[in-house]
Amino acid sequence: MNDSALLDEPLAAQRPRADRPARRPWTHLDALEAESVHVLREVAAQCQRVALLFSGGKDSAVVLRLAEKAFFPQRVPFTLLHVDTEHNFPEVIEFRDRIVRERGLDLVVRSVGDSIRTGRVRLRRPDEPRNPHQSVTLLDAIREFEFDACIGGARRDEEKARAKERVFSFRDEFGQWDPKSQRPELWSLYNGRVNPGENVRVFPLSNWTELDVWQYIRREGIELPSIYFAHERDVVRKGSALVPVTEVTPAVPGAKVERLTVRFRTVGDITCTAPIESDARTLDDIVRETESTRVSERGATRLDDQANEAAMELRKREGYF
Predict the structure, then answer these.
(1) What is the C-alpha separation between 59 and 161, in angstroms, rounded?
(2) Is the model's pLDDT at 56 over the cut of 90?
(3) What mean pLDDT is reported for the chain?
(4) CA distance between the termini of the chain
(5) Domains of the chain with bracketed CATH
(6) CA angle 211, 213, 218 (to 5 degrees)
(7) Which residues, in sequence order, are bridge partners of residue 83?
(8) What residue spans of 183-222 are helical by DSSP H?
(9) Which end of the chain is more exposed for a tag (fewer CB within 10 A), N or C?
(10) pLDDT tens digits for 34-46?
(11) What distances in angstroms separate CA 225 from CA 86, 230, 296, 301, one per listed residue?
């Protein structure tokens, strides 16, 4: 065989045959997936005790799928951790428990309710949202299990304080975040070194948008809680937001209760998570709806973020994820 034939042989071997399906084109979702898988492998390589925050929401479901891909065929090497306010939607908790059970994952649940009952958290009034108080429970869980890294599904397009984060976000011995003391991440090189008591929060979805997440969920066929899809629900209008009528958030006397077709763009504590009016009952419907929206999911549906322009940043400085 002459030299030219030797050069041509590898190319010829790679030419698609009639009986071989064409390879799927590389897309932006493949690039995002590869970056996230790299981040997950980096935290596994650099850190000893890692928690993956798993609430059963769409972002944490995507991070779990990415972790499964990153370490396949081995089990996900992280402990799943959920900081439960005890005011979560039952559909989400049922979904969380079923996924953990079916996939044989290790889940640790720590409750804001327990923090309240032990005096670690004190509410100003009984109906106060518990979401901001998750910081205390989270920091207690980090100390209890000596986690040196916690992985979450936060994205930079959610809220402006999120956009200040590094992928590996350093937290001091008090669990506090200071944007001025973060480490450089040139050329996607991450520094997960911490002293005892310190930790890093790791965000594999930093460069994803809400639309990317929904497109990836559609491509991968990721299962989600039913409340992400359009359904009928009793709500009360509060300004521009819709407050769901539940045992935790009953309608006050005189309030007008409406039965509307709604869905949730994000899920969390019932007291501060609002649905939107929507007829999107399939993933294709949700992708089309998300393509046309101009308001972030937190800006549109998280009542606690609307209380103060700097609400998220203040909570993050106190240890919030």
Answers:
(1) 18
(2) yes
(3) 86
(4) 62
(5) 28-211+311-317 (3.40.50.620), 225-307 (no CATH)
(6) 95
(7) 110
(8) 210-220
(9) N
(10) 999 999 999 999 9
(11) 17, 11, 20, 17
